[in-house]
Automatic annotation (TrEMBL):
It comes from the Eukaryota. It comes from Triparma columacea. The keyword Thylakoid does not apply. Keywords: Membrane, Transmembrane, Transmembrane helix. This is Glycosyltransferase.
């Protein structure tokens, strides 16, 4: 009986061991299949975002009827990649969360987002400023919808609807359309010293997106809720040029199409052959100065330094599809500068035509736009005293316009100062202050005194009703014996301030000093009566 029980117990134990061994090895044999299934699932996940087969996607080139086959871009692992935001600050892309359907997933940063788009995309064009002349392109500004950056070819493209005809001959009559795809414009403000003509430098600014016939039918990335501005900087070396030949035209361009309140995505266009006095013309000398000015001043446009360029955009926004598309874009600064097709006041002929008549409201709104971006609120002169006279000394690198104003300050303090006076006179070297500090000093000033030139840009922030006194070289023009009232066309049409001009050559003579003191006293009386 004992032997039978022992045998039965041994049989049961062997059965249990056999069962567990079978189960264990069976699980081991199933593990590779599960892993292979996971790998296959991972391999097919990108198809949610990008179609695996684009073999039938074609683009027709408007240049020669060529057809291009869109090459599939490999899906990369961007979980730790970074995007440069529109203000030039790198921000991490949010890590992708696993979802059953990621077709609407977004890559986000502090300033912009991109989404995956797959619907057929067609572009539209709307241009203004037509003059029906050979130079019409320099007058023209355009708004685009559904414009895309081709990351392979590093240029912007439009997708022309097949039914669109644009400019065409009909019955022998030339038909012109503001919605034509057969146009051109100037990417930046024009410096007349670059010269017109076929071989002139100005022609290098002539631009228009490349046209592809038919809609975009392959997948693309879309930049969300921004206005794209392709832009060529005229002269970033000089703050005056930067403000009045770049920022003011950019603001004017946005206002044309009611886009001044939108978020901006500015792409600086770098020419293959740089123009004279531009940032790229003499890189060893100019590049650092431009970058410093961009870093300091671009914030007044509501964005940071324009680190995006047509040469580097394909690397700076890490998307997997070839096309990076924008809902809207504007371009065409040509003659929107404060001086138009003339110099700033160096030549006598510059004074024959004003480029800013009736532009006073835009100038005031531009000032408010800049202060809003600096988060500074000021509409008019403070009603409370004291009245502040700000004297901008040594505002220019030009020795002839680098003025201390010591004698002017002395006579103003004698006439208007004193212990019981409500007038305060401050000498300031604005270059030593941040943009925000400069703006705050200006908006608290009843009167500002400065030399003409780039150093006078801070006067743009003066409050409504303030007085500006500009000292200019009377015998320092390119045509000897004539005055150089630089930027006269801007200040004489900025209706929110009262502008006066004094020659530098006689500024320290008694008669001129007395005239200045009398003028400032009179201006303070006007200001007090209105405020």
């Amino acid at each position: 009986m004992r032997t039978s029980k022992a045998a039965l117990f041994g049989f049961l134990m062997a059965a249990v061991i056999t069962y567990y061994n079978f189960t264990f090895f069976a699980r081991l044999s199933e593990e590779p299949n599960r892993g292979a299934g996971d790998e296959e699932a991972l391999a097919t996940e990108p198809e949610v975002h990008l179609k695996a087969d684009n073999s039938n996607s074609k683009e027709s080139s408007a240049m020669g009827g060529e057809t291009e086959k869109a090459e599939q871009q490999p899906e990369a692992d961007n979980s730790n990649s970074k995007e440069s935001s529109a203000i030039g600050v790198e921000t991490e892309i949010a890590e992708q969360q696993p979802e059953a359907d990621n077709s609407n997933s977004k890559e986000s940063s502090a300033m912009f987002e991109t989404t995956i788009g797959s619907s057929p995309l067609v572009s539209t064009v709307h241009c203004v400023g037509e003059t029906f002349t050979d130079k019409a392109w320099a007058h023209r500004s355009c708004e685009f919808t559904n414009i895309c950056f081709d990351r392979k070819r590093k240029d912007f493209v439009l997708f022309k609807p097949e039914a669109s005809s644009g400019h065409q001959h009909q019955g022998g009559t030339y038909v012109s359309s503001s919605s034509s795809y057969d146009l051109s414009l100037s990417l930046g403000g024009i410096n007349p010293r670059w010269n017109w003509g076929i071989n002139g430098g100005i022609e290098k600014l002539k631009w228009f997106p490349r046209i592809l016939n038919g809609p975009l039918i392959e997948d693309y990335h879309r930049m969300e809720d921004v206005t794209l501005i392709p832009w060529h900087c005229m002269n970033g070396l000089n703050v005056g040029h930067l403000l009045w030949d770049d920022f003011l035209p950019l603001y004017t361009l946005l206002g044309m199409f009611s886009l001044e309140q939108t978020k901006l995505f500015i792409v600086r266009h770098i020419l293959d052959e740089p123009l004279w006095a531009t940032c790229e013309f003499n890189p060893s000398r100019n590049k650092g100065k431009c970058e410093a000015n961009f870093e300091k001043w671009f914030k007044i446009m509501g964005v940071g330094a324009p680190f995006f360029t047509n040469k580097t955009l394909h690397e700076q926004v890490p998307v997997t599809s070839n096309y990076l598309c924008f809902d809207r874009a504007v371009a065409g600064l040509g003659l929107l500068t404060d001086h138009g097709d003339k110099l700033h006041g160096w030549a006598q002929k510059d004074y024959e035509i004003s480029n800013n008549i009736g532009r006073g409201r835009i100038m005031w709104e531009f000032r408010s736009f800049m202060l809003e971006n600096l988060k500074i609120d000021s509409l008019s002169l403070p009603k409370s005293k004291p009245r502040i006279i700000t004297v901008s000394c040594h505002s220019s690198n030009d020795s002839r316009r680098s003025l201390s104003f010591d004698k002017q300050v002395k006579i103003l303090r004698e006439r208007l100062g004193g212990d019981d006076s409500d007038v305060v006179i401050n000498q300031v070297k604005f270059a030593e202050y941040s943009v925000e500090e400069q703006a705050k000093i200006a908006i608290e000033s009843s009167v500002m005194i400065t030399a003409v030139g780039g150093g006078a840009v801070t006067a743009t922030f003066l409050p409504k009703g303030a007085t500006l006194v500009l000292f200019f070289p009377f015998d320092n023009n390119h045509q000897k014996g004539t005055a150089a009232r630089l930027d006269w066309d801007y200040f004489n049409n900025a209706a929110y301030m009262r502008t006066h001009w004094f020659p530098i050559e006689t500024m320290n003579e008694d008669e001129s000093l007395t005239a200045l003191a009398d003028l400032v006293a009179h201006e303070l009386q006007i200001i007090s009566s209105h405020h």
